[in-house]
Structure prediction request, 259 residues.
Amino acid sequence: MELANGSEWGERWNSTAAPDHPDLYNYWAWSIMDGALMLLIVSGNTLTILAVTMSRRLSSLVSNQFVLNLAISDLMVGLTLPYHLVFYIDDDFGQIKWSCLMRFILIILACLASIYNIIAIAVDRYIAIVHPLHYSRYMTKVITRLLMSATWSVAVCISCIPVFWNDWEEGVACEMNVVVPKTYTTSILAPMFSLIWMVMFVLYWRIWREATCHARRMRANTCCPTSANDWKSIQVGFLCFLYLINTLSQSRGEVRASE
Prediction:
């Protein structure tokens, strides 16, 4: 009996004295990774925002407005990482409905805004390369502002859907696969991301195709005439050389004849 009690107390002591090292290591590993990623994202995008806003030459370009908008959305992605990390530090923070929902709303909003801004940049580059003569007519400041407003409006509308449509319950873990409905992910987010990547692929394929054709036209218009001109120059130089040799030989003949 005493031996059984001793073994029971020993198991209790080991269970209380030995910490859960793998969970602790995972926590610190994710904390370091999130912290380093946050510093890189925040510092890089902050420098981009300052460079565009403080330079009059950069801010005057229409294409740089899309770059500025993308930097703002990417900066938002970096700023949501500390909020996301709080849920691993304090478990009770995830038991509050609004704080739990904001965890997913913010990250979805930032990611959607970044992707939509990438699409806007792709459209801008497509018009600039495929239709360069009509770029100033298509991409005016008004159209640029409307396009940037549309990207943020659509991102806000889609990211706020979990506010009204969620599976949050008290005492349930604040995880995306638990709180956010699966239908929302499979019926809205997944098809939308697939469509965005398809549109981006088509746009950049057209840009690559147009750039390739333009490079071929440049080689056809510049390389061949240059070669022809070079060959003509060689012929002219050779004829001049022959004329010079002929002139010298005649002058020598005349000198000898006079002697």
Q: What stands out?
A: The radius of gyration is 35 Å. The mean pLDDT is 77. Residues 182-258 form the longest helix (77 residues).
